[in-house]
Amino acid sequence: MEPVIEVRDLVKYFPIRRGFLGRRVDWLKAVDGVSFAVHPGETLGLVGESGCGKSTVGHLMLNLLKPDRGVVRYKNLDLSALRGPEERRVRRHLQVVFQDPQSSLDPRMLIKKTVGYPLEVNRIARGAEAVARVKAMLAEVGLNEEHVYRYPHEFSGGQRQRIGIARALITEPEFIVLDEPTSALDVSVQAQILNLVGDLQQKRGYAYLFISHDLSVIKHMSHRIAVMYLGIIVETARKEDLFQEPLHPYTCALLAALPLPDPTKRRVRASLQGDVPSPVHLPPGCRFHPRCPQRMEICSLRAPDGLEVLPGHWTACHKYGN
Amino acid sequence: MGATLLEIKDLAVQFFTYQGTVRALEGVSLTVQQGEILGLVGETGCGKSVLARCVLRLIADPPGKITAGEIRFKGRDLLKLGRREIRQIRGNEISMIFQEPMSSLNPVFTVGNQMMEVVILHQRVGRDEARRICVDMLRQVKMPDPEQVLAKYPHELSGGMRQRAMIAMELACRPDLLLADEPTTALDVTVQAQVLSILEELTRQSGAAVLFISHDLGVIAQLCDRVAVMYAGHIAEIAPVAELFASPLHPYTSGLLQAIPRIDEGKAALKVIPGAVPGLIDPPRGCRFHPRCGQRLAPCDREVPAFLEPAPGHCVACHLYASGGRG
Amino acid sequence: MAVNGAQRSIPEPITLNPLFDEFRKQYAWQIRELLFTIRLLRRNPSAVAGFVIIVAMVLMALTAPLLAPYNPIQLSLVDRLNPPCMAHFFGTDELGRDILSRVMYGARISLWIGVVVVLIAGGLGAVIGAVSGYLGKGVDNLIMRVMDVILSFPPLVLAMALAAALGPSLNNAILAVAFVMIPKFARMVRGEALAVKERQFITAARASGAGRFWIVRHHILPNCFSSVIVLGTLILGEAILIAASLSFIGLGAQPPTPEWGAMISVGRKFLMDQWWYATFPGLFILVTVIGFNIFGDALRDVLDPRIRR
């Protein structure tokens, strides 16, 4: 099946300016060569800790940022090359749901307008028809028709996330970036939202990029998973394969560090020393080598190439190189 | 474990706001034994942070007020102590660490300055001795280059290091009780693992008891000896950790456990607790969980359930276990 | 403390008329907020005092044609320079006109000046500030430097220069004062725009395909609304003062217009022996400006989100 959206060798650096004249002193290498594809009806989970660049990847895929190198292709169209009406036609198919239910909705805007404006702005529908679609969408995410006349602060966190989802889905997109959609929610509400998102995908065949730092949520939601560290992907695999046989030492460390909600399964917790280094001064060779418990000599000299070690299971680590 | 260190009895706290009176805590009772790690778990608005702050009398008087109950620490009622006596206890016998270390460490003073201030204040030693104690503590929390760290400002340290400095600072005076309010929620998972290891090691070594507050059931399962589950200002259930996870009695607890996605099991859909946490200005009558409860009985919307002990060491506030009912 | 309104229900509205109903549903929250604001203001002594003053001035202005005892521009050379007495509460001026009536009509003019200045300066300033803050970089730099230049002049001096250049008349005075006030609004709104710009709903709007000007109009400006109102009440007082000063030096209202500043200007000559001439208009300027200032201060406090919750 053809992928809905594909990124190839994506690179994005942010300049760090210091000094009186704001000279560019260094680069923050947020994304440093990322490639993957997402197919219709599939969820790709993007997991990593803070500073690994996963949110930046999401922004790049939505054309909110232009890549410095590499390309984002939506159905064979290069996103950064699009202009004007073409770009608008494509935009409605790429939507996003954000993390923070507090700030992802405009507090001064009625829900009617918040959920409805994408229709207007993309010239899909207006007036009474738009309102009708808004009401239908709200019903689908589990809210009441009457809610169109309310403001965000009258809703709980979970309900606000539902509104955010409604806004994302109203233009009938094909690809949605979910950037930590449940990280700010309580456990019981998180379950409701995750179920909703999953059901909608089954009904409508959306492709999702599910960004999170929480491996258990990622496992529950994704079909395939990509693990990011300091701007690159270190491992990609189908969900079952990743958890049964993690290849990259970082993935193993993430799994080991995850606290299991089962007191009978207590185990040695921390296998990783030190803090996540900054994306400004990258270690030479393999980025992970200073913290890697399975470090070899070659790891500080040369960055490993990616390799498909098992069918459908890709990783970049010298352990599997030749 | 040992004798009872902290005993909270029937605590009630209210906040007076323009919208009305928020009944944040009502009828809360729990105990912390010497040397144990008691987990306090609940969702937003359940009152766990308020409870911890009550122990150290950190609730701002308007708008908050402790309207009933007592908090006995080593036999003395903390709520009746004068201001000077409470200050003696804070940082010395009872310490607290917070979720966001950036806002609990003063950004204009160096870490060393703040740590030594606490030590000098409570242990009445000179600067050199205080410095030695601080470096020693930092070494115990596995901070690289402890002497260097003393000279740094909080913003120069990473989140994990700041939290470790916070732990070192609060444990420097060897308190008997440490209140930890979501100390690892804002940290990355690998850093969280390190901080939890350090916390567990140090408190076991010194014999301090810990009241560990979190909304993350995984962390609670891995760290705590006993667990108290809170919902909307009430305590729902208290039990030893293995028993709570294996056989939860309160419908809320079992609902929570079924709602979390697990790495070690595959689940098709998460079982959901319908509805949302109620507002505390006008909470539901009787058991505050009853509107969302799948096992509702007749008295649930009228009477607040009493705190019962259907199994030894395992307490629950639910009408399902009232004498004569199912157990 | 999370005070969750999740279970709060809006009471069933009484269906009088479908259109009115629609209006009521849509603005239910605004109406509630307004009532809440009014409640908070009622408890604040300076808000009440300021409000009373403002209402008194507004009433005086509105009812001047009905209640003023004399025609403000009617001459009566017989009654020149009479001190305050039963027939003329505030005395008469050098042409025999009743000062009380002139002061009452003067309120109309001063308030009109204040309101128009705030509308123009507030409207233009807010748009300039919002666009500048949202677009950022070069545009922001350029606009803000221009605003800085305007702000670097003492407002009265600049207003004088403009009014003189445009020609002495009341309308020109209004334009001059409005121009001088624009940067104050622009600066403030720009600051708010910078903060609002970073919030996630703006990114969401961009991702949904909203253009820059749409975002400024529908997202940024509404979120700056309450601070514009507060600044407006404070600027209103200042505008009245500057306009009066312009009239004082002859650049604003021209005779026989009974503008307060113009009256003081002429009354200056008579200050020694006929104290009432300049004193009453001056007193009214003082009280009006104070009224707007203390009300604006109290309003700012009340609308501050931290105090409200």
Average predicted local confidence, pLDDT of chain C: 85
Which residue ranges of chain C are poorly predicted, with pLDDT under 50 across at least 5 consecutive positions?
Answer: 1-9
Portion in strands of chain C: under 5%
Computed over alpha carbons, the radius of gyration of chain A is 21 Å
Number of domains of chain C: 1
Number of strands of chain C: 0
Number of strands of chain A: 12
* Span between termini of chain C: 11 Å
* The named CATH superfamily of chain C: MetI-like
Low-confidence stretches of chain A: none
Give the H and E element order of chain C. HHHHHHHHHHH
| Silhouette of chain A | globular
What is the oligomeric state here?
heterotrimer
Helix content range of the residues of chain C, please?
over 70%
Q: Structural class, from secondary structure content of chain C?
A: mainly alpha
Number of helices of chain A: 9
CATH topology of chain C: MetI-like fold
Round the Cα radius of gyration of chain C to an integer and report it.
23 Å
Q: Approximately what portion of the residues of chain A adopt beta-strand conformation? A: 15-25%
Helix proportion of chain A = 25-40%
Question: What does this entry look like structurally?
Answer:
- The complex is a heterotrimer of chains A (322), B (327) and C (309).
- Chain A has 322 residues and is of the alpha/beta class.
- Helix content of chain A is 29%, strand content 24%.
- Chain A has helices spanning 54-61, 84-91, 111-121, 127-140, 157-169, 187-204, 215-221, 239-244, 249-257, and strands spanning 5-18, 23-38, 43-47, 69-74, 77-78, 94-97, 175-179, 207-212, 224-229, 232-238, 307-310, 313-315.
- In chain A, strands 6-7-8-3-9-10-12-11 form an 8-stranded mixed beta sheet, sandwiched between helices. Chain A has a 4-stranded antiparallel beta sheet with strand order 2-1-4-5.
- In chain A, α3 packs parallel to α5 (157-169) and α4 (127-140) crosses α5.
- Chain B has 327 residues and is an alpha/beta fold.
- Chain B has a single domain (4-321), classed as P-loop containing nucleotide triphosphate hydrolases (Rossmann fold), CATH 3.40.50.
- Chain B is 32% helix and 25% strand.
- In chain B, the strands form 2 sheets. Chain B has an 8-stranded mixed beta sheet, with helices on both faces. In chain B, strands 2-1-4-5 form a 4-stranded antiparallel beta sheet, covered by helices on one side.
- The mean pLDDT of chain B is 87.
- With 309 residues, chain C is mainly α.
- Chain C has one domain (30-55, 104-308): MetI-like fold.
- Chain C contains 11 helices and no strands.
- In chain C, α2 (45-67) crosses α10 (276-303), α3 runs antiparallel to α4 (137-152) and α3 packs antiparallel against α8.
- The chains are: A alpha/beta (322), B alpha/beta (327), C mainly alpha (309).
